[in-house]
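Batch job 17 of 40 flagged for manual review because the log was empty.
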Amino acid sequence: MKILVCVKQVPDTSGKVAVNADGTLNRASMPVITNPDDKNAVEAALKLKDKYGCKVIVVTMGPAAAESMLRELLAMGADEAYLLSDRVFGGSDTFATSQVIAAGLSHIGIDEDDIVFCGRQAIDGDTAQVGPQIAEKLDLPQITYAGKIDYADGKVTVQRMLEDGYMTIETKTPCLVTCVKELNEPRYMSIKGILDCFDKPMTVLTYEDLKDEPLIDATTIGLQGSPTNIAKSFTPPPKGAGTMIRGVDETAMVAELTARLNAKHIL
């Protein structure tokens, strides 16, 4: 049994988001981190490794600089890493990205008792589309928004987090599960893990390595293969300060509020 975890290196949006003059994100000027939900997915895989001794493989699509992120995840406890990196992958939207990652996972190989984990969504896009698209392209059953994961006898039981409650679903392996931040608390890298991470396998796969996979095609990857494009990214202007209506006479306060809403043609 092995667990393949799809991860992404993203700009750290906790600080100031830099935007170019053309409206695109200035990624070069922003620090990068491992997508938070993806770290929860890695932790979920490592918990299963601790219990069952399975192999954990982390997979990402990105530039050569993404190797540093993969090394950190190897230091957390992952066993092997794959970097899908090629200029022709650049500019991929969620559809094209899922094409490349699905081809990469197929190249690595998904056996009958394997599980694919993904984060719920990436903080730089918030689409939550790539995980489900990978599952569809690999013809895998999928369970999204996992807040609790149990595994036994080749079956995965997931408690899905919904807006108004929970839903429990069971499926056989192989399958794909997307993880939410409430699932767990990702562990830190250990000193031994940091020392060992550079001895663990790190494989770079280019388009030439993947082109024979049936899931990938030069016309469905990269910018030219993306059916959607980002027209502009921007920081929304701050909202104006609200107006407080104060007083002790509730009837008078309601009358004043009504008058103001009428003046703005809201009522």
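Reviewer: the log was empty due to a logging misconfiguration, but the result itself is present. The radius of gyration is 23 Å. Unflagging and moving on to job 18.
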